[in-house]
# Entry
Amino acid sequence: MLRVYKIEIKPTKDQIIKIHQTIGVCRFIYNFYIIHNKEVYEKEGKFVSGMSFSKWINNEFIPNNKEYIWIKKVSSKAVKRSIMNAERAFRQFFSRKTGFPKFKKKNKSNVGIYFPKNNKTDFTLERHRIKVPTIGLVRLKEYGYIPLHSIVRSATITKKCDRYYIAILVDEKLKPNTKPYTEGIGVDLGIKSFATVSNGRVFANINKTVCVRKTEKSLRREQRRLSRKYESLKSRKNKEGGATRQNIQKQLLKVQKLHVRLYNIRTDYVNKVISELVKTKPKFINIEDLNVSGMMKNRYLSKAIAGQKFYEFREKLIKKCRQNDIEVRLSDRFYASSKKCHHCGFIKKDLKLSDREFVCPNCKTLIDRDLNAAINLRNNKTYKIA
# Structure
């Protein structure tokens, strides 16, 4: 089974230079392909495929323009993947899934360096390091994280906030989960608490913890400092003194690190919640098919909804459950899970978002609003399989 392991690496100074060169070439080739394709389409009315562009740039463009010979000094496989990524962006644009491909800007785009496995170069995986083609032996920050018996298929190196990461695609045999099945559960996602399970378990909102609040407060402070430096740079251009570009880059890096810290805290919490749900191996997990993009249009709740990472939770839960042979059910987004009484089935149409307890006018049942929704999701028989 194919599986991806992402881990931070500690490259040497020479390796960092090589990584930066490859990232720069891949970004240039990506943008060049977009420009060239646009020019050819305007003149001849035809689309240039990624394979045709690769042949043209290697056999015609570089031999006739010796000043671009530096393109050949990095991994050809990484450059080829960058071309194919640009072609995929065009294909998605033609199928009306996305907009016109955007140019990758320096220090503002996440460009990955792709290294596939071939006959000439192979990956050597050790406990504390890995050998990457054209880069050499790179030390891993965590030891023993990647199983040594795995077969490496490819690797992608990325840079994020002065840190370097490698995502390794391996082929390994996973041990089947032989635990007996337990009863199915329903999971209701919310803002007050992240998730409420039908068995009574409640996962708190990570965004209300002291750690996240302090990080957000530091982020607001550093963002204000960055804004003042940009204003100071404008005054410097007007010969009144002010901040320099170097100071702005240093401050920008501080802001980026805080953003990454918040992202890591929230992602780690989502992974832990999924692990706790799957660990008991229920027969099924029923969740609501939320319209996250529509919920984000509410300007009062959009920030809170974005911090909960509902869509990421759903995608990772489905993937994890498939590995453990657990059925994931999706209830319709219009299913009245919160307004319906789990005891008698009465639907309370006047239920408000501020009502945190559900009181049934018919059978006088008093229960927590989210727990009532989770139980209704568990008992729902009209669903679709994810």
